[in-house]
Automatic annotation (TrEMBL):
Keywords: Membrane, Transmembrane, Transmembrane helix
UniProt protein name: Putative solute:sodium symporter small subunit
One Pfam family, short name: DUF4212
Source organism: Poseidonocella sedimentorum
Residues that span the membrane, as ranges: 18-41, 53-73
Length: 87
C-alpha cells in the first residue's frame, strides 16, 4: 500500500489528526495549566481557589471527559462521511 490509497488514507489521516489535537488539548490543560503555568495563573480565582489549582484538581478531569464525548461525536460523523458507520 502506498501513501495515496484514497478514501482509507483520508479516513485514517483525519482520525490521527483528531487524536493528536485531542492529546495536545489534554496535555495543555492537565500538564500546562495544572503544573507548568500554575504560578502565572495564581492570581485568577475560580470557586475560592486559584485557577491553576482548579485545573490540577478537577478542571483537567472535566476537560478530559469533554474530550471523550467530543471524540466519540466527531468519530461518528467522520465514520458517516467515509461510509464506515455501523448504522
Amino acid at each position: 500500500m502506498s501513501q495515496d490509497d484514497g478514501p482509507n488514507n483520508a479516513y485514517w489521516q483525519a482520525n490521527l489528526r483528531l487524536i493528536y489535537i485531542s492529546l495536545a488539548i489534554w496535555a495543555l490543560v492537565s500538564f500546562g495549566f495544572g503544573i507548568v503555568l500554575r504560578p502565572m495563573l495564581s492570581g485568577i480565582a475560580l470557586g475560592g481557589a486559584d485557577i491553576g489549582f482548579w485545573f490540577a484538581q478537577q478542571g483537567s478531569i472535566l476537560v478530559f471527559l469533554a474530550l471523550i464525548f467530543f471524540y466519540a461525536w466527531r468519530m461518528n460523523r467522520l465514520d458517516r462521511e467515509h461510509g464506515v458507520d455501523e448504522d
